[in-house]
Amino acid sequence: MAAEYRIAIIGSGPGGLSAAGHAAELGVSHVLLEKASHLSDTLFKFQKGKFVMATPDVLPLRSPMPFEAGAREEILGNWDSKSDQLKVNVRLNTEVVGIEGEKGNFTIKTGDGRAVTAEAVILGIGLQGNLNKLRVPGAELPHIQYQLDDPDEYELERIIIIGAGDAAIENAVALSKQNTVYVLNRGEDFARAKPANEALITSAIDAGKIQPFYKANTISAGEGSLTIDTPEGEVTVECDRVIARLGASPPRKFVESCGITFPSDARNALPECSEQYESNVAGIYIVGALGGYPLIKQAINQGYEAVEYILGNAVEPADAPILKSKISILESDDVEAFLRKVRDSIPIFADINALMLREMMVESTVHKYVPGDIVFEKNDYTNSFYVVLDGSVAVMIDEKKPDKRIVIGLGNYFGEMGLISGRRRTATIRAESKCVLIEIPRRTMIKVRGNSPEVRQALDREAAIRQIQTYIAPNVPRDDLIDIAESSEIKSYKSGEVLFNEGDEADSLHLIRKGSVSVAKRLDGRSVVLSYVASGNYVGEMGLISDAPRSASVTAAVASETIRIDGSAFKHLMASNPKLKASVEEKFKDRLTQNERISQTGGGGGILEFLLEQGVSEATDVLLIDESLCVGCDNCETACAETHDGISRLDREAGPTYETMHIPTSCRHCENPHCMTDCPPDAIKRSPAGEVFIEDSCIGCGNCARSCPYGVIQLASLDNKKSGILSRLFAKNDTSEKSPKKAVKCDMCRDYEGGPSCVRACPTGAAVRVAPQALIQLQGK
Amino acid sequence: MDIKLSESFLAYKDYKYLKISAVALIITLVAYLLHDPGRAPNGGTWFGYTLGTISAGLVLFLGWFGIKKRQFMSGTDLLKGWLSAHVYLGVLVIFLSLFHAGFQLGLNLHSLLWTLLLLTVLSGIYGVFCYVRYPSILTGSRQGLTRAEILLELSELDLQARDVAMGLGDEINAAILRAAEETQIGGSISKMLNVEPADCPTMLALAFLEGAQVSGEEQEAALRKLRAVLIRKSELLRRLRTYVRAATLVRLWLYFHIPLSIGTLVALVAHVFAVFFYW
Lengths: 781, 279
Ligand SMILES: Cc1cc2nc3c(=O)[nH]c(=O)nc-3n(C[C@H](O)[C@H](O)[C@H](O)COP(=O)(O)OP(=O)(O)OC[C@H]3O[C@@H](n4cnc5c(N)ncnc54)[C@H](O)[C@@H]3O)c2cc1C
Ligand code: HEM
Ligand code: SF4
Ligand code: SF4
What we know:
The complex is a heterodimer. By secondary structure, chain A is an alpha+beta fold. Chain A has five domains: 5-129 and 250-310, 3-Layer(bba) Sandwich (FAD/NAD(P)-binding domain); 144-244, 3-Layer(bba) Sandwich (FAD/NAD(P)-binding domain), CATH 3.50.50.60; 321-451, Jelly Rolls; 481-602, Sandwich (Jelly Rolls); 612-721 and 738-778, Alpha-Beta Plaits. Chain A contains 23 helices and 43 strands. In chain A, the strands form twelve sheets. In chain A, strands 1, 2, 5, 6, 7, 8 and 19 form a seven-stranded mixed β-sheet that branches. In chain A, strands 10-17-11-12-13 form a five-stranded parallel β-sheet. In chain A, strands 20-27-22-25 form a four-stranded antiparallel β-sheet. In chain A, helix 1 runs parallel beside helix 7, helix 12 (442-451) crosses helix 13 and helix 16 (567-576) packs across helix 17. The radius of gyration of chain A is 29 Å and the shape is globular. Chain B is mainly alpha-helical. Chain B folds into two domains: 3-138 and 251-278, no CATH class; 147-246. Chain B is 76% helix and 0% strand. In chain B, helix 2 (46-68) runs antiparallel to helix 10 (254-278) and helix 4 (109-142) packs antiparallel against helix 9 (217-252). Chain B is elongated and about 95 Å long. The complex binds flavin-adenine dinucleotide, protoporphyrin IX containing FE and iron/sulfur cluster (2 copies). The site of protoporphyrin IX containing FE has 25 residues of chain B, from helix 2, helix 3, helix 4 and helix 10.
C-alpha cells in the first residue's frame, strides 16, 4: 500500500511549521502532527507579551513563514494566518508516540491509537520534552495540574505542590502569599534545588507559611483531596488544587525509540545527522532545537531546507553566506573546499559529523597571523580553543628566554587546558611562521567534545600529557610522560563527593584539572578544613611519599575533574627523575607544616568553611563587604546603576554573612560559568581579563538567570537609559514602547578604566573585589 | 573580617594623609613660632597671606568632595582615598586658619567664617565617630536577617497573634488588633531614634496581657501562647528599631555637615571679598 503522505512533519514549532508551510506552498502532500491544541507550543508558553528576538541578524530568512523580531502574540498570529492561507494540513491534539517502518513507508503512531503513513518524516519536536505526570489513581481529575502560569491568579485556596525542585519551590513560595500551601517532598530536604531557592523555601517553612510533608509519596487523588503516605502514616489532605512539578523527560527516549542514535551519553548530546539533516534512519530528518539549532530563525530555515532535500533538490544551506564571510580573509569563497581542508588536515576533526563541523565553523573565527604576532597572552582568561590550519605557532615557556619554546604545527591544537579548567592561559602563544588559525569558542568546543567521543578521547589524552607536564613534572621530557598519562584515568566528581577518605590506602595522586577540592581532617571528633586546592594542583602525594594511609579526606568543593595517576607508576617516575622527586617532596613538606599549624590552632574558624559552602571557590572575582565598615549609604548600588543604564546589578543587603564578611548578590565571574551553558544565541562571553558579560544579542529567554546558582542575573528592559536632564524633563512618559527585556548582570565595569565602580564609589573602604583564591590562601598563612 | 582584605578610609595607604597633615601641622607651628611679624601676628603679613591662601584652597578642596562623590563615570581612584584626605586635611585646616588669623578672634565677619568652619569641622569629626561606631550596630542588630525578612516575620507574628487571640475576650482582641495595625517603625526623627517608645501598641498590648484575666485552662494556654508571640515580636521590633536608630544616626549628622560646609564656602567668599575691599 502506498503511503498516505509524501511527508509527515512532527511538531509544529518554528522548524516543523516552516517545513509544513513550504510543503503546502509547493503542493507536496503532507501532514503536520502537533500534540498541543494550538500551533508552536514552545512559543505559545512564552510569557504574555514577551518580545521574541530574531537572532542572528546576519542569517537570511528563507521560508514562507514570516518571522521578524516582535511580540509573541504578533508572531503566533502571523503564523496562524499564514498556515491557514497556505492550507497547511495540520492535526492538533495529536501526539506522536512512535515511528516504525523505513524510508518510503513509515507508520507514525499517534496517542489516540491511530496511525498515519508517510514516505519521509521531519522530526521537529524541540527540546522541551514531556512533563512528567502523576501515575496514581485519580490522576486524571481536573484539580490536578502540571504547570502554573500566573501564581497571582489564585487566592485563598488550599494548594498542594508536589516536588522539591526549583520549579516546585518557586511555585510554592509565590502561591503562599495568598493561599494555604503544602509541599510534598519525597526526600528529607531541598538540597536538589539552587541554594537561593533552598534558602527561600526553608525560611518560608520556618515562618510557617508553607507546610511541608517530607519522605512523602502520593497514593491517590480523590475529588478535592489527595491521599499521601508519610512516615507518620497515611493522610488525606483536602485541597482545591494539586500542582505536580515532576520535571520533564527529555525527548531523547522517544527519539531513540524511533531507532535514531546519539553519539554519547552526554547531557548535551545531539542525534547524529548528515549535512542534509537526515538521521541515521534514512528518511527521518531532524530540524530545530532537537538537532542542536537553538534559535527560531535557524529552525525555520532548516524546516524549509529539509523539505527541499527530501524532494531531492540541492539547496545551498542558509548559513553559506556566513561561512563565506568567515573565509574571506583567506581570499577564497569555496566553503566546501575549506571544510574539506579542515577535516583532512586536522586529525581530531577527521571523524566528526558533517553537520557538526559546519555548525562549529559558523561559530568560529578564522585568523591569519605573521611571525611574532601574539595569539593570546599568559594569564588571559580562556574562552576559546585553537587549531592550526596552516603554518605554526610557538608556546612561549618563558617569555624572557625566547628560545625556550615549543612549536605547534599544522593540524595540532592548543588552548585545551583552559577549555577543561576554565582558568587563565598558562603560556603566551606567538605565531612562529605565517599561519592560519581557527578559533573555536569554548562553548562550541565543549559541545563538540560532548558529541564526539573521538574528539573527547583525543583531547583528554593529549591534555593529560600536557597537564602533567605543566603542573607536576615540568622538567621531565614529554616522551617519558606518555606512559603515565596513558595509565591515568579521568575522574569526575559532583560537588561534595569524596575523592578519598582519611585512613584510606594511598594508591594514587590526583591532579585537579577542573574545579577545586577541600582537604579536611578530623580533630577532636570534628572535621576541620585544612586547605583548599584549586585546579592546576595535585593532592594525594603525602600518602605516597610517606607510604602511610591518607592523612586527610579530600572532597570536591564544586563539580570537579581530576586526572588520577596510579601511585606505583608515579613512584617509578619519581625514582628516575630526581628533580621531580625533590619538587614533590618540597610540596609535601610545605603541606605538612601548614597542616600542622592549622591543626594546632584548631583551624581557621568557620570562615574557610563558610566560603567553600557559599561556592566561593568556583568564583574568579567576588564582591565582599566588610560589615564592620559599611555605613549602608548604598553609594555602591548608586554607582552601579549610574554606570549601567540605571539598573544596579548588585544587591548589597541580600546574600549570606559570616561574622562581618558579607557576600552581596553580585556576579562572581565563575571559573566555569553556569550561566553560559544554555544561552541560545551564545550571548554570554568572557573577556581575556576574566569578566563574564552579556552581549546585546541576548534574546531574554531567561535560561541564564535560571542556571546561575547565585541569583545574580535579572531580566530588565533597559529603557531607563540615562539621558540629559532636559530631555528627561520633556520626554513624554510613554510606557507603551518598552524595550524588550534582556538579561543584565555585573560586568565588572569593563567599559570603565577605573574598574568596578561599586568599589571605587565606596567612601568607607567596605566594598572590595577579590580573587577568592587569594582570599582562601590567605587563610593558611 | 577575619582575614584583613578591606582597609578603612581612616587607614588608607598606611595613614598617608594623617602623616601628611601631621607633618604640615608641625612645620606650620614651628614657622609660626619662629616668624616675627614685628607686630601682633595676623592675616595681613606675608606669612598670614600664605597660610590664608592655603587654608582657603583646602576648604575648596574639602567642598569638592561633594562633587567627587557623585562622579561615577570617570576616574580611576577610590573614593575612600578622597575621604581619607578629606578627613585629615579637614582637621588640619582649622589649625591653619587659627595660625592664619594669629588667634585674633572678635565679633566680626571673619570670626563668623571661623565659627562656621569650626562647626563644619566638628560635625565632620562627629561624622567620623559615627562611621566608626554604627556599622557594627547596623549588622549586629539584624543578626543575619535583612530588613525585608524582619518585616516579613513581623507580619507573620501579627497573623499568628490574631489567630490565637480569637478565643479570648474582646479587649484582648482589640489590643492585639491595635498592635498589629498601629505599630510603627520609624516615622518622625524622634521616633526613628527611639528604640523602646513608651506608646508602642505592641508594648502596650504586652503590658495589658500581663494583667488580663481569663477563665479556663484553654484560655490560659492561649494567653501564654499569645504572650510568647508578642514577646518575640517586641524583641524583633527592638532589633529593627535599633537598626533604624543606627541607620538614622549614621546619616543624620550629614544634614548638619552639608549646610554648614556650604555656609563656610559662602562666608569664605565674603571674607576674601571683604579683605580686598577694605584693604
Ligand atoms: C523562554 C524562552 C525564550 C526564547 N526566546 C527566543 C527568542 O527570543 N528568539 C529565538 O530565536 N529563540 C528563542 N528561544 C528558543 C526557541 O524557542 C527555540 O529555538 C524554538 O522554539 C525551537 O523550535 P523547534 O521547532 O525546534 O521546536 P519547538 O518550538 O520546541 O516546538 C516543538 C513542537 O513539537 C510539539 N511536540 C513535541 N513532542 C511532540 C510529539 N511527540 N508529538 C507531536 N508534537 C510534539 C510541541 O508541542 C511543540 O509545539 C527561546 C526559548 C525559551 C525557552
Ligand atoms: C571646611 C571643612 C569641610 C567641608 C567644606 C566639608 C564638606 C563636605 C562635603 C561637601 C561632603 C559631602 C557630603 C555629601 O555629599 O554626602 C562632606 C562629607 C563628609 N565629610 Fe566633610 N567637610 C569639611 C570638613 C570635614 C572634616 C574636618 C571631617 C572629619 C574629620 C569631615 C568628614 C566628612 C565625612 C565623614 C563625610 C561623609 C563622607 C561620605 O559618606 O560620603 N569633613 N564634607
Ligand atoms: S552570572 Fe552566575 S553563573 Fe554566571 S558567572 Fe556570574 S555568578 Fe557565575
Ligand atoms: S558603598 Fe560601601 S559603605 Fe556604602 S553601602 Fe556600599 S559597601 Fe556599604
